[in-house]
Amino acid sequence: xxxDLKLKNYDGLFDLEIDSATKTFKTVDGMETGISVTLxxxxxxxxxxxxxxxxxxGYVGDIIIKRSLGSLLWTYEQVRLTxxxxxxxxxxxxxxxAPMRNLKQLSNIEIDVTKKSLxxxxxxxxxxxxxxxxxxxxxxxxxxxxxGD
Length: 149
Description:
Elements: E1 4-5, E2 7-10, E3 13-16, E4 18-19, E5 24-25, E6 27-28, H1 32-40, H2 62-65, H3 83-101, E7 106-117, E8 120-129, E9 134-142
Antiparallel strand pairs: 1-6, 2-3, 4-5, 7-8, 8-9
Helix pairs in contact: 1-3
């Protein structure tokens, strides 16, 4: 059963694929789009993270869906990657992925966060499906881009 939208990669830029025959979005069995949307959509930050309410970002659709979409990954762009920060990031990612835990196709989600350098982390997400499939997604995230990287 397909549960995710298919993406087409145009040299690092992604777009949804349309089925030319049915004029609908193409789907796939994986959860690549859901993982990307969850990680890289900016969730609204609480006051303890960002004092100024006008700077807390967030997805405008949260008003409609009555829950927060996305993660607080963006709030870690300007902090030192100490063990405490890594623990907080992992906890924030667990919260971000909580809605996926309710999907009938999944039996478990594991999230691991590993410091790779002074300014980058590896986010490793393992999805356990009820049909015994296991899918793994790894994302290397850097706090800041330097010299056009």
